Amino acid sequence: MIVDDEKFIRKSIRNRIDWERFGITEIEEAANGQEALALQESFRPTIV
């Protein structure tokens, strides 16, 4: 899960890392802590 209030930063992190190399196939994004907490109820992140 990528959490940052700047959409540009979230997209940059998402695009710069070869997630599949680390076995990560699903990536979710949140704009703030509250959004991340709500999202983690349905999406069980390996890395935040």
Task: Provide a quick synopsis of the model.
The chain is mainly alpha-helical and 48 residues long. The protein is built from two helices and two strands.
Please describe what this structure looks like.
This protein has one domain (2-39). Helix content is 35%, strand content 8%. It has two helices and two strands. The protein has a two-stranded parallel sheet. The protein is flat, with a radius of gyration of 11 Å. The termini are close together.
| SS summary, helix count | 2
Q: What strand order characterises the main sheet? A: 1-2
First and last CA, distance: 5 Å
Low-confidence blocks of residues: none
Write down the overall mean pLDDT. Answer: 92
Total domains, how many?
Answer: 1
Strand share of the residues? 5-15%
Helix-strand category? mainly alpha
For the secondary structure, the number of strands is: 2
Organism: Hungatella hathewayi DSM 13479
InterPro entries: CheY-like_superfamily, Sig_transdc_resp-reg_receiver
Protein name: Stage 0 sporulation protein A homolog
GO biological process, one term: phosphorelay signal transduction system
